[in-house]
Inverse folding.
């Protein structure tokens, strides 16, 4: 029988690494984080080959392989090194308590893990939970919370529809994810403590080789440019020349505002970048200072 010949992995990857020189990222297969995760990769110039109903795919525009998984499995896959990096909610990451480092907060999938009690009851503080039955899908985080507050509660792990537990007599209180609060409200519950504020994060393990670290730096550079652009707007306005210095003093710009003469004498066009936090206040001040025809345009990428 002829001996089977294997191509060493180092040859496939270009000769100098045990792992291929691409980044393997784990993202949610379907659910609340899927769209935003794929959109973020796209905005970073990482186009994915037909993603529908696939377990994994590759990008033609970046050395990246993408694994589609249940969000609960992502921390484990990253810790084990099956994936190098991943996108997951902090709630899942901390609950699973795996060895993975947060490299960037991504600003989507925002929610909080909260304690809720029946609306008819008056909350008497954390100590009143002593001996209570607590239904949750987050037993690790709830036990940590109880330990931290020196309380002993009875934690009942439920995988879904936690909010119905008090109504059917399965528990006294619940700890669940909340975003708008309407699920709790519809189930006769009220939020009384926040255990964790959560958003999606990019995580990595400590097994990346040099080339993968360089690729991760490239990805992070792009993610930061995309995030920064989302927090800023490009603003154009017309200004009478005699008001220019007052208007320019209000505008930060990347370095300083751009000023161009208009066809009509005595007027200029002023261009600048405004951050979301101060946006409305600045627009009001600019109008008061004499700016007219103010146009606000979204920015796609912002490289500093
Ligand atoms: O199949 P897979 O395991 O991958 O998905 P999943 O069903 O476990 O998770 P999914 O897709 O529902 O949520 C993925 C992640 O989105 C979570 O781990 C959080 O990081 C984040 N996220 C943000 C939320 C919410 N907001 C949220 N509101 N996850 C769940 N909810 C649920 C919550 O459990 C409750 O049932 O929405 C309900 C409450 O919402 P409000 O608006 O009524 O308060
Ligand atoms: Zn899940």
């Amino acid at each position: 029988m002829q001996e089977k010949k294997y191509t060493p992995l180092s040859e496939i990857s270009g000769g100098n690494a045990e792992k291929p020189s691409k980044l393997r990222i784990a993202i949610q297969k379907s659910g609340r984080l899927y769209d935003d995760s794929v959109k973020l990769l796209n905005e970073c110039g990482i186009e994915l080959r037909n993603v529908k109903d696939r377990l994994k795919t590759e990008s033609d525009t970046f050395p990246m392989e993408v694994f589609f998984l249940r969000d609960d499995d992502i921390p484990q896959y990253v810790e084990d090194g099956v994936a190098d990096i991943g996108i997951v909610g902090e709630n899942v990451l901390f609950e699973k308590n795996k060895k993975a480092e947060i490299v960037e907060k991504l600003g989507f999938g925002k929610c909080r893990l909260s304690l809720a009690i029946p609306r008819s009851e008056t909350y008497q503080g954390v100590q009143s939970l002593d001996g209570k039955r607590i239904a949750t899908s987050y037993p690790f985080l709830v036990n940590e919370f109880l330990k931290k507050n020196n309380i002993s509660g009875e934690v009942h792990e439920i995988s879904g529809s936690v909010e119905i537990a008090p109504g059917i007599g399965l528990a006294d209180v619940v700890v669940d994810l909340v975003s708008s609060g309407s699920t709790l409200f519809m189930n006769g519950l009220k939020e009384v403590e926040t255990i964790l504020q959560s958003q999606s994060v990019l995580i990595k393990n400590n097994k990346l080789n040099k080339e993968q670290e360089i690729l991760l730096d490239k990805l992070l550079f792009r993610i930061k440019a995309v995030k920064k652009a989302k927090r800023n707007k490009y603003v154009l306005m017309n200004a009478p020349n005699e008001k220019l210095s007052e208007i320019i003093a209000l505008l930060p710009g990347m370095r300083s505002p751009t000023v161009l003469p208009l066809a009509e004498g005595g007027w200029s066009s002023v261009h600048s970048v405004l951050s979301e936090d101060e946006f409305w206040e600045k627009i009001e001040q600019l109008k008061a200072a004499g700016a007219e025809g103010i146009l606000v345009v979204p920015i796609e990428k912002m490289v500093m």
